[in-house]
Task: structure prediction
Amino acid sequence: MQIRIGLLGCGTVGAGVVSLVRRRADRVADMTGLRPIVKTILVRDTQKDRGVSFIDERLTTSPEDILADDDIQIVVETIGGIEPKTYILEALSRGKHVVTANKDLIALHGPEILQTAAAHGVSVLFEAAVGGAIPLVGPLKENLTANEVTDLKGIINGTTNFILSQMTTRHIDFAEALQMAQELGYAEADPSSDVDGLDAARKLVILASIAFHTEVHLSDVRVEGIRHITATDVRYADEAGYVIKLLAVGRDRDGELTLAVRPTLIPKNHPLAHVSDAYNALFVRGDAAGDLMFFGRGAVVCRQRARLSAISLRSCGI
Result:
């Protein structure tokens, strides 16, 4: 049986989705009995070279070719930003499952999107919205439901971790480390969202909402970036036995939440001190499980490999 997918957007990530679905179609079919097929792709320009050849996939500039097609059961959104909210809500209201890695949209409009999905009996999967390929959302939503999670603490922005790692190991200043990150494709031309802590704050909103079973807003997070960190700060920290990391922290103390993203001194003997370059890591503390650590490549590395690790057709429940 075929499962037909509508793809919103076909940039680097979207093209990666097309390639990944093709490579893994047989495997998914063997595991689930369902063969994924990308049927229609929404783009702005159907003539643009996207680095992938389209065989059976249809390119369109009209979202209705996906949203109104009853043959399409899953919509994968790779456009980014807030603009796709209308498309996602429409897809859900028409009974289509949605997969997205859009952290901005989930952080700002997650409750509305999830409520719409529940009202129409469909799923929204957004694992790759936080941590790239690291499974964080699934364990918090499903595997740790018997736990009362009290603490989240981690490095969830690969760009800033790369910059701080280079400042530490190469003894260079922030501007030079940022330039390296941009040249390697780890940082955008405008790095504000990363270096000012907003990207990590949006991810923390998503994780905290799930872990603490409450609605969390971006305004609830105290945010401080790393622009002001100097080579001298890094050297003094090293001499004192610490490294500086941009840490996202969430704590629940009897229902009172504390949420912050800020540069933090980490003792060199702590596992998070050894999370370097563009890697991410998250500590989770549960009353039954104790301390757990999730570690792996962050989203900036995954984007370079043109992968979207959020797709899990079997968990769509179809």
